[in-house]
């Protein structure tokens, strides 16, 4: 390794840096280890100046890669994962199953054969999604399982507003995982990863798109179940409707539609009812001598900071005020 080459080792290094330098064999080895075996050919005599960074390791993987010289990359037939190429600079050509794509902004999945040519200025953001993760997301939506891999249309058309939004989501994911919050919120990272997978299934045409569309309101039911479970688990926390949608792995619009169709309520109304039920239980425990506290204590514990509103909605639900529950005879 030459003095100008860098590997990720030492506190002074970029923590995301896996390799930087001109040793093309070493760069090939590091990329192979992280992504997939492939044949790498340098197309000109210029010494490479490659740079390979890992931006995120998790359910999905996010990388940035540039070779710093003109190259051809031939992974051949892909294994059980999806490779999403999102160019940031430079130019190239991507060929999938013998067909040259009109754009290098692409997604290639299990069983497809791919080759890529990149010029020296090319730098790509690469998202790697395990095939099993996509299969599981699809299984939840269809309430059944399938052994066949999902085949996406390979070109990500940024003229499509759905694809544009999804690509922005990837950029947002990069910013999030680079922030201190991601280290404090592993659950948030997992939710974001799942949002990327579900968003891709919604935005990009694939071999089962029609089946998902035809399923109608039934497709919303798994998301409603996930939302209910999240509300029950986090009933004591300050949860927003956006938090519920993220946990349910669906859009806000679909979440609201699912609650309307299947529960005849809204997500926040459902969460409020859960909290009222807990408050009612606690007041009964105090009335029976099994616990101590006041109406104010109970209301604040379950997120009701306006006592007047709490009393009104409690009476509407249970037919008596919180104070009346508290004074009931044992």
TrEMBL record:
SMART domains reported in the protein's UniProt record: HTH_ARAC
Keywords, sorted A to Z: DNA-binding, Transcription, Transcription regulation
Pfam families for the chain: AraC_binding_2 (PF14525), HTH_18 (PF12833)
PANTHER family: HTH-TYPE DNA-BINDING TRANSCRIPTIONAL ACTIVATOR EUTR, HTH-TYPE TRANSCRIPTIONAL ACTIVATOR RHAS-RELATED
Coiled coil: none
Protein name according to UniProt: AraC family transcriptional regulator
InterPro entries, per the entry: AraC-bd_2, AraC_XylS_family_regulators, Homeodomain-like_sf, HTH_AraC
Origin superkingdom: Bacteria
PROSITE patterns cross-referenced by the UniProt entry: HTH_ARAC_FAMILY_2 (PS01124)
Domain HTH araC/xylS-type intervals: 225-328
